[in-house]
TrEMBL record:
Record Gene3D superfamilies: N-(1-d-carboxylethyl)-l-norvaline Dehydrogenase, domain 2, NAD(P)-binding Rossmann-like Domain
Domain 3-hydroxyacyl-CoA dehydrogenase C-terminal as annotated: residue spans: 192-259
Organism: Fundulus heteroclitus (Killifish)
Keyword Phosphoprotein among UniProt keywords: no
Database matches in InterPro entries: 3-OHacyl-CoA_DH_CS (IPR006180), 3-OHacyl-CoA_DH_NAD-bd (IPR006176), 3HC_DH_C (IPR006108), 6-PGluconate_DH-like_C_sf (IPR008927), 6PGD_dom2 (IPR013328), NAD(P)-bd_dom_sf (IPR036291)
Keyword entries, A-Z: Oxidoreductase
Residues in 3-hydroxyacyl-CoA dehydrogenase NAD binding domain copies: 8-188
Family as reported in the entry's similarity comment: Belongs to the 3-hydroxyacyl-CoA dehydrogenase family.
Organism domain of life: Eukaryota
Name assigned to this protein: Crystallin, lambda 1
UniProt xrefs under Pfam families: 3HCDH, 3HCDH_N
Gene Ontology biological process terms in this record: fatty acid metabolic process
Any one GO molecular function term: NAD+ binding
Amino acid sequence: MNPSELKTITVIGSGLIGRSWAMVFVSGGYRVKIYDNQPGQAAKAVTEIRKQLEELEEARMLRGDLTAAQQLALLSSYEDLAQALEGAFFVQECVFEQLEVKQSVFQEIERFVVKGVILSSSTSCLVPSSVFAKVQERSCCLVSHPVNPPYYVKLVELVPHPETLATVMDATHSLMTKVGQAPVLLKKEIDGFALNRVQAAIIAESWRLVQDGVISVKDIDLVMSEGLGMRYAFIGPMETMHLNAPEGLEDYMRRYGEGITRILNAFGPVPDFFGEPAKGIVKEMCELIPSDQQHLSARKERRDLLLMHLAKLKNDH
């Protein structure tokens, strides 16, 4: 038996992210206890996960070496927090993105776990020093921020609390690697972490270009999906620059650094995402994809299917 099969992980919260984390962890052979304080929700999540794993197995896209049935056998649901946390060495919290809620949840969790259990939050925008402010023992606390949907998009940002031990960061990095994710280590906490800071820069300039009448909503999305995104799916901006000049990164900056600086200085202030000019951008987007649930759900399904195929392509290469 693989050693990981003897270890237990508790997932707190059974929404989309909680279900995705549970699927990721069982794919690596870990026992997973999924907890939700709303009656019936954790059991409902297991039913949904069963459906997804069986569909993935049928499509030959199931992660890990275990069958869907073997993975499901590792999964159990709980409505009692103490029972859900019993025996866990790692806890992944996935509740509402509200600071007070997360603080309260971790206070409660700390009552039932032994010293040394790693407490991890899935928050996408709250820094660890805020999330864990009411926890007594913060040396084992960190943020493990996934990208939605985590089952197909493997990046996980590991963000330490100022008091987090290096051994805890290393252990979490090892765990995430074992279950097939792609963890990155932030050396210190920062608002927005890395991914959302880069994403915010792209959003701001894309919004500005549309708002200033330079390009349409449809075409700025094509700039990414058929341009930058094609290579960024496999290599990042630093390697892209390194490969785009005959003698590497230093040569690239000699050639293009002044131009990049000129463009950056022309960016101007952060765009207004809420005022009158923003209404035109929203209208243009909704003409391409109406914002009713039927159209949005269809596009989300398409997105996940494409991400699934891209993940397979990346794995095969």
